[in-house]
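Two quick folds needed for the group meeting slides. Do the first one here.
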Amino acid sequence: MREVDGVVARRLASTVPLVGQVSRYIISSGGKRLRPALLLLVCRALGFRGEQRFNLAAVVEFIHTATLLHDDVVDESTLRRGRATANEHFGNPASVLVGDFLYSRAFQMMLDAHDMRVMEILADATNVIAEGEVMQLMNMHDPNLDEAAYVQVIRSKTAKLFEASARLGAVLAGAPPAVEQACAEYGQAVGTAFQVIDDVLDYAGTAEELGKNLGDDLREGKVTLPLIAAMRRGSDDQRALIRRAVETGDLAELEHVVEIVRATGALEVAHDAAAAEAKRAMSAAAQLPANEHAQALVQLAASLLARRN
């Protein structure tokens, strides 16, 4: 990961000072670096130790960072990772344009691999992520959203880059198709579990733990699995209250919504869904050669269920 950080620092260089300032601001704010870590772990599990793994790990981090910059503008977010978002600090125009810079820089860096398969995977992933963002936008303030539509959005918007990161590790290692597919399934399952737990924490955590404002999902009208489960399991009055809160984005009802989500067992429903995805990821990882790096992939999937931020 230190090697990846070195690539990130070098490739953020620009003759335009504001580009570097905004990019460094969001990248230096921390984050779990899960997507680059997945790529590196898969490479090591499959025996690939070439330098290109560091370049592509930085690429997926740049793509992820670009999506964060754009997301925070769309969502009008003010807090991420415990500090002001880039759009709050530098303004919306700078955040959007630097997000564009990071996307284009990522595509420049992809060329270093001299591999059309790598280009295909990453181009497909960025396109699917964009579609997922649009789907989520269309679903805002719609209390009739069901679990299938919710899963479709998070598999596009969040899990797709996890899937691409793991698949890239297999491609770099020259793995056979069955192993490549197992890696892709692992990434998709881990990414899905990660997002479901993230949505659980919006109703179970604290602002200090999460590093973001509680209730942001409700304010934005996002219908996540905890809300879907609460409406399915709650009384008519409880269901009506959640529907009203989703449609209006009124945080005045946040405390009551949280109470309903917790009282109906909706958090447990969502946690069980995440656990099923984690189990699917562990089964996929079992198809890789038995070594410490494959075992780390198994442990990573299991650890998602204990997330607090």
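Then this one, please, same format:
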Amino acid sequence: MGIVIGIDVGISTTKIVGISGGNVVSPMRIKATDPVTSLYGAFGKYLYDNKIQLTDVEHVMLTGVGSAYISKPVYGLPTDKAGEFVADGLGACHVSGKDHIIVVSMGTGTSLIRCDGDRIEHIGGIGIGGGTLQGLSRLLLKTDDIRAVSDMAVRGNVSNINLRIGDISARPLPGLPMTAVASLFGNAKSDASREDIAIGLIWTVLQSVGQSAVLASIGSSIREYVMIGNLTLLPQCRMVFPPIEKLYGVKLIIPEYAEFCTAIGAALSYFDDRYTTEAL
């Protein structure tokens, strides 16, 4: 059997991986000005860099919002489309080794997918994610370069931005330690530094996402959440997520290949007849 290529096609960024013998092969991301250019650029570079011939490719599986712009087989190879939420679930379960989880896909916004054994179900989401961080950074910091914002945030002090329980109460509230956030940006001053604003913005997005995931599992036995998508690359995840874990007694997991999970899941869907795909 040949290699199966999974491609998560975005509007300007495409992620591509191979699956061979159940193993993930050389994940890669490519940026371009439009989804078609991004897809074909990523595919060509992936084959070239990994010394893969077209005849070595058994199948191509597409997913992501940009895949709607692709209406014919990639380079004449057998090509199908996989549902994005199914791809999220399959990829996250594969790389985490868990199947009783909520997958938290942090993209432009955030989608929540419940995985329970063979069942993968999209349960909702929130309009807060990387797009929120970019837009607010553009307004408040005059840049939408997330890496620059993250670097800036390393030098910031979030206590200058967020209002904590300890700032408004002389003692802990039931179930809430003094360090818990009472109000995001509730302590911000008009002359806040760019560094403090940067850490405040990142904290706002990551905490909103993390707590939304936890609240989405109320009434179920799920206590593990697999975080995927580009925002998992932010080093501030290691600052924001542990307090949420401690407060709720849960685990927020960032697995290997977290940013490539959707592409991985798209490739894996080829091997599983339980999930519907669309042939091109």
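Slide caption for protein two: The longest strand covers residues 23-31.
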